[in-house]
Fold each of these.
Amino acid sequence: MSADWRLFLPKSVTVLRQGYGLGDFRADTIAGLTVAVVALPLAMALAIASGAAPEVGLVTAVVAGLLISALGGSRFQIGGPTGAFVVIVYGIIAEHGYDGLLMATLMAGAILVVAGLARVGTLIKYVPDPVTTGFTSGIAVIIMASQLNDIFGLRAADVPADLIPKVQALWAVRDNLSLPALSLSATCVAAILLLRRYAPRLPGFLIVTVLAAGLVIVTQLPVETIGSRFGDMDARLPAPSLSFWRWDNAVALLPSALTIALLAGVESLLSAVVADQMTGRRHRSNVELVAQGVANMASASVGGLPATGAIARTATSIRSGARSPVAGMLHAVFLLVFLLLLAPVMKLVPMAALAAILVVVALNMAETHRFGLILRTSYGDRAVLLATFALTVLVDLTVAIGVGMVLAAFVFMHRMAGLASMDGQSIIETDQADLPPGQRPRYLPNHGLPDDIAVLTFRGPLFFGSAGVLKDALDRIGARKRVYILRLEDVPMLDPTGAFALGDLLKRLLDEGDEVFVVGASHGVLRALLQTTPKPLLKRVRFVRTFDLARHQVLGKSGADSETAGPPSGEPAVSPATPG
């Protein structure tokens, strides 16, 4: 097996090869049980918030959680349903039905497998912070809004998925407000937050869920429970099936599948990075994506939800002493045991308690501190953050991510273009009034050369975001010159658009003057010019390595043609002074 393919070995295989003893198994068992206790109420709450039955969340945590840990590239990753999927899942079910969700999840899994095999795991890490913070905070708002029905005990039926229609529908049934449900929800939220503050090692979600169920049984509080809304839980692991697949829906569901794949990839790799920071280990991003893809396809085949790495549960596993992926696999086994044995008891859990759990999840997702910090940064980052946040809340998560990424790309291009300069001045210009030729700004530091010689010094990458100004470079020179010297020593990159623009500038300079020198062009820049500019034109240009050499040749001093730059290696042979 080649060294490259070893990077696709699951961490579970690596751990077993390195040696795995009884002490490791004992530590992983304790960690796995602890995480399972935390995940039990959370998985049910997330499923209900997504518009599915509570047992679906447990099935997802069992199947996907087992495969993510067994096949993934992180030693400590804990997988399952997460809050990030609630918005997209609820919308897909509302528009395409549950079979549509299963199709989208299956397609997303396939996309993740292909992405991992294509080694794009490192690229997903480049999703900018304003985009992730924007849609994560937007998801938090929507999760919070989705729980208003159960928090206030309104018992509204057929609540719309979109935020404003949802609020309008809930406001229409405000007379159904249940004080017992509201009191129970508020008490549960307060109890969870207090336990997190003063007893963070205790499983606050489970403790509050059990106490709330006990309180409802003892006091006979008139609040909805899982059993009263969903009936008996289906305490079994469904057999795999693809009967939900319909080819005529595949194209319509592709945008949703891409969104699920992106969310799963981003959140799983973020979780793996957090685990690395906590333990000093390193994950394998591409095999992690493959594992996420396999897990989501398996989850869809048994009727489950989309799944990914869960940051909070992964951190809980590490703090509980996990040593290997076995902890995550055991967490799935324990959840399966809970599903098979405790289903009759779990139906007694009040909906208000599960709503309280999701309120706390939403508060954790909101990242208000990070949101505020980004608002203090540049106008571009603020625009990306607010646009992504607003579109997530008011329109659609798929649209929000797409628009956010495009805006972030424009902001990045603007910054990259700002790095490019000509003679020390940025080539990005603000809007200006039209000026006659004699009043246009000129900047031509001549380095002590005669007035009939123009020196243009370019710095920074010349790409499609910065190449447009090259066509104006000749206008800034003013009177015609005998010799033009273009200094490119500090131009690290030239993309095709920049190469075409530079080629056009060279042609105009050759038409204006007797000689054109290009100084210090790197092999990459030369290669781009050779690929885009006619060779007869390039043969008229003198390419030299240093500015001093160009100065000597222009002033008629020692020519030293032997030091002029040739083309990059592998390109056609050229004369000593010109590429061609």
Amino acid sequence: MTEANDIRTVRSEAAVNADAGGAKAAAEPVDTVIIGAGFAGLGAAIQLARSGKQSFVVVERGADVGGTWRDNVYPGVACDIPSQLYSFSFRPRTDWSRFYSPGGEILDYLQEAAREEGILPHLRFSSDVLALDWDDSTMTWTVLTTRDTYCCRWVIVATGRLSEKRMPDVPGLDSFAGPVFHSSEWPRDLDLAGKRVGLAGSGASAVQILPRIAAVADEVVLFQRSAAYVVPRNDYAYAEGEKASWRADPDSLATLRTRMFWDAEAGFAARLGAAGPLAALRDRARRHLEAQVPDSALRRALTPEYEAGCKRVLLSDDYYPALMSKSVRLERSALSAVEGSRVAAASGAAYELDALILATGFHSTRPPIAHRIRGRDGRTLDAAWSHGMVAYNSTTVAGFPNLFVIDGPNASLGHNSAVHMIESQIAYVLEAMRYLRSRAVPAFDVRPERQASYVAEIDRMAANTVWLTGGCRSWYVDERSRRLTLLWPDTASAFRERLARFDPADYDIGMVAHD
């Protein structure tokens, strides 16, 4: 099926759903619709509520808040950004259990935030978005979900970059005789004791999963398409005395967060390709590998063939030891075919397995929801992004009035906290809304030439970064255009400075028609 036919099918199904039952077809008027209830969506909702705005809903396709931290429940799931930095600056927490938070604690944090900030009445769970359509005549968006329809002035897309699983295109995968699943869909009742298990992938999820399943499975085969740079994690539990000191002196916690932020900022120099910092990062990973893997042949197999930082640098103290265990076998190629319980690798090797885990990542640079968003002149967001995701200030997209994308084009980081970036964007969104409301302006749209200039600047900034020069293929780079479309190619502090002021000169205010 072609892309155009696929979009028409979705919209045809949406129309049927909207027409089936008059109450459902009636659009509920709200000021703002937020799509997604992870860090970005909840952060936007909390700040809207704190500013006194209550006419908004948060539509979430899942049954709870939390986004990726709700979905990913695999053994060992945890964050690789320090707890005090991977949390809202306006909601500090003194009782994180560890330096790096386990996934369950992060989910608890987000659930608590939604509850204590009064967001629960605004949440609409089990609401998958079917279509978003802009109407130039009314200057409003119609948002059709599997549960309700909304007519709104503003849309904030906060679906994130780790929400749409990427499944490998492997012949016969559906024929596998045992359980086969993506790492983000881990069965809660899964028992791998005594089983022969295949683990496809060697990225951030795989390095957390492998040590846990190696401890219980009879045999584990790790399918490694390319080796990763791994550095020490150095995680530890916070002492009760530390937590008590933060409760007694909140300023000390703010100081700690600031220090952590600037320590992380120092990591950008290596991504920019600075010789000294890049060599230091490379050597740190090499020393870690040499210290934990005495076998020279295995070390060679685990040594990347690209520059450090080109792909995500992983943090682990138990991944290499797990690979050294007798129950684990490293297969230095990807899955190639499946027939019953027999799984073949690209190398030609074949394995009999009882379970197959796919830690194969997500559709990060081509978000599927873009097919469902139709802006001015009926153009879809996916069509506007045919050469890769673009946005002005990484937040607004030409031809899509009154729509904001958070944690989208060039708004992620490879060295610091995503939450800092999300808060920078939320502040920009609220400033734009305040400006337009104060002038009773119904709509605005970024000027195409401003967006083009910004994208060209991003491309210039990215040109010499390790993400484009490091000799790897990564999920940071658009597969078709080979542009760096996911990451912001500068420091997190520079991003915040860039978005510190909403400039109306960058926009068609009141919707002057584009040429």
Amino acid sequence: MPVTVYERILDLLEAEGINTLFGIPDPGFIHMAMTAEGRGWNVIAPHHEQAGGFMADAWSRMTGKPGVCFGTQGPGVTNLAAAMIVAAKENSPTIFFGGQRSRIAYQRVRRGRIQYLDQLDYFKPAMKFAGSIEEPEQVDEIVRQAIRAAMSGTPGPCYIELPLSVIHETYDWAPVLPPEAYRLVHQAASAPTVEQALDLIRSAKNPVILAGQGVFTARSQGPVGELAALMACPLLQTSGAAMVIPGLEETTFAYGFSPAGNAAAEASDLCIAIGTELGEPLHMGVGRHWAKNDKNRKWIYIERDATAIGINRPIDVPLVGDLRDIVPQLVEGLKATPRSRSAEFEGWIELQARFKAETLASVPVGMTPVHPARFVVEATAKLPKETILVRDGGSTAIFGWTFSQFQASDIVWNQNTGHLGTGLPYAIGAAIATEGKRPVVLITGDSSFLFHIAEIETAVRKGLPLVTVVACDYAWGLEVGCWRKQVGPQSPETEAHWGKWVRFDKAAEAFGAIGEYVEREEDIWPAVERAIASGKPAVIHVPVDADVNAMDAPNYDEFKSWYTDFKAGYGSDV
């Protein structure tokens, strides 16, 4: 029986377990959105296509499946561009559908065609795959190739163009195939390399696991936690994946931002890198905290893309494949010979406990406006364990690395891109992915929050349990610090500040959310607690000390060491 193109696309996505669609319905996509909603899908219309792309990205991270969004021809697709680029940089398998003029309009030799851009040529360089469905019989091959490309090797986004002349066409397709019939869904490592890895693990004195964002976006926390337990070793967080696997709270240390993490990295004689690019925030695995003992350290690298092996540093045992398949191979091989903790490891656990206590004790009390560190402490001190934490901002994010009191099992943000304004859309995408069953708390700076503030209405419309706590310095805080450090204390700080009359609590109420204005530090947590208990969208506006926010960001030297072009001799002391 003939089926329309848009219905077939939904059929193919459903075969992958996808049931959510983000986008602003327009003449090209209204039937797809209407049909999806009729099938019981979540259909979410943002107020800006860019925000919809970020929502789909977060949905993907929380489910391990490709996120899907769409934009209308011309302006809608143009608005998706930033989200597409962020997804590419963050290795997020997001499928972007773009509308397009009909073929006859596309091919005509004419000037001044309205709402027309050569979209494929613009986006091909950033996408893992970009294709246009010219005829109905192409639907299966193009949609499957997009999913295949998005989920194979290093994950990433794909773009599919849907001309108006095609989307309503019908065709008599064969039955929908399951994913394993048209793409690689399992990719274990070869038995010989697994044995080599097991030999290194068994002979190591002080191994560490370096867990990147890929561990969490693959939803592989359980197997990686089991591996860490069998190895009796520290789990080092990357700054982009500062999450904790349940059960490993006291043995998880932040690389670069905790003495225990740095000590464990320096002393390690084996590092198993999982779900990470070994990029600049990790000093490529060769500099800074790795440099001291580099000649004595072996590396096992679990990586889906064979061409990534050995680029940033030599690898002793590459395990090429999907971490969801390889980590269980290592677990199975170690079950008969679990390790015991080393004396050094016990010392690092004690060091970490002291560091956390001393860090908390160092946070100033009683300042008005609130000290940014105290803002983070109070906002995160008692969050429910199931909370999804979302980050956004410059200085606010940096203060969060050091002073957050919450060991989150899921954190959503974009370290690799550093793109401001993703926080609220990410929070909505994460809440939709978990069907509103987990509270979502966004800790953000004010400048970042302003990017997509209209999406408060989206959260209200969808009834999401989303609490936003905004640190307000009424400025581009990190940039104010750059002005003062580079130009001097009397710098003009051109356009680095904005109106102190802005009230996010009042804006939230105007959108239909709960709004609170909090000036005293002791009132921050009670406000957060009330907001979480309500189960509704809420915004808490907290003024913070602008000078501290600009000039005293903690561990700034560590942050600056990520940028190789700040100094010669990468890995040397800052």
Amino acid sequence: MSKYWQRIAIWVSLTSTIAPSWALPTANSIGSAGIDALRLHQSPYNLTGKKIAIGQVEIGRPAQFGWDKAAKDPTFKLEQIFYQDGEAKANTNVEDHSMMVAAVMISQDKRFPGVAPAARLYATAMGTVDRTGQPEECRSIQHIAQQNGGDIRAINLSFGEPLGRDPRPNPKLDGNALLTQCLDWSARVHNVTYLVAGNQGKGGVPIPTDNYNGINVAYSLLRQEMYTKLGFSNLSEMPTGTAKKIKDLEVNVDNRRSISLVAPGNLQLYNLAGKPTSVNGTSFAVPHVTGTVALLQEFGDRQLRTRSQMSPDVRSHWTLDSRRHEVMKAVLLNSADKIQDLGDGLRLGMTRTMLAKNNRDWLESEAYGDRHVPLDYQLGAGQLNAFRAYQQFSPGQYHPISPVPAIGWDYRTVDAGVYRDYHLDRSLAENSWVSISLTWDRLVELADPNLNNEYDVGETFRDRGLNQLDLYLMPADEDRLDRSLWSSTSSVDSVQHIFHQIRDPGKYKIRVHFRQALNVPHQAYALAWWTVPTLH
């Protein structure tokens, strides 16, 4: 077996598995049993990712019809293919895994359609283990981020690097592996939403899951025709137990959260031979999120194109801020499913109760009861729901200078020591739930001695640290932070998240507080909120 296929075998075993045909799941992962994206393909939404460019970086690459002999389906169209940061050669580095990951995003097959079948996918292969490492991987993701005139909205990373291949002495998941720093730098500089297969634990491929500026995805399994249970082979877990057990785990330092979202990873896809195959793993969960970004971005661009036809009030809610990666992260996390709504809308219309490995739900998690913990270790903010993400995104952007509606988002900057208050325009209903998400970037800078504004092999990055922002839900007339109804005040995460029940109906406000500057004294952030107002 060649080194290339040895690496493929190790990588696929860690991020995915392939089951026999008799084990095929019966529900569609992008339908109502999964992320509910099919509804967005239909009228009146008509969202398919049209004209939105997204990327894929893996060890191998999908096959291009008319270029690679393995490509059998003329409806499976890739915008462009590469090898690392250069041209791809026909019939080289093509493999099943990359083909199936791409299919989740852009397949136009009627039986197994992709999340965003009209999106424009740029894909590159990194190739053999003896020809690639983190520097070449960084060049590869940078190359994809620069395609389409530098307008790539999301990049799918269904791969990872083992800690054992990290050249640093005593490497840890501290965000400072070169590939992780590269991702965080690129997210900010190229304004790309990075979606990463969330494999941590022991013996996995955890780099770059220790990123700050991307979205790490775990995978769910089909249970009674609904994707509701976290997959057992997800490796992210709480560092508990004996000192040796904790030492052996490959998890983020300082108890920082890794998993952002869950998405279906147990599904049917066609392999290169055109046969239906059952697959499992984070590799196939991630492209559900990447495709959803394409759907949301198509809607956002549609709003931008039609601004001249909008009333001045509506027009003000749609700007280029809708393309920000921080906004996408806040919207996706805030609209995730946690606890099934009972039909009265008080649980924000959530469609299912998600269960962790030990069958506990989000309300039994540390994140629900601890103000310093924003996300659950296994479930993150919950499971991706593309339709609810549309509902979260579609009201548009609202400035804190005026009262804001029950559902919305914003992208803004705040200065160190200063706060911004978002006053909700209506009283909140008794026993309703509130979901609020705040996201911002770690500052990573490129040491660029040749001043070409690109990463070149041999160059390094500088970690400038993470500014500390806090999030509060407060009575509208209250200013004391210790009297907030709830808060999210992690000092190590680049996400704050509140999911809390309103016992006392009344007027409330959301506060974003820039508590401490560790780099620059002004910080860009995205905020998304979803509440339930009273009926009168």
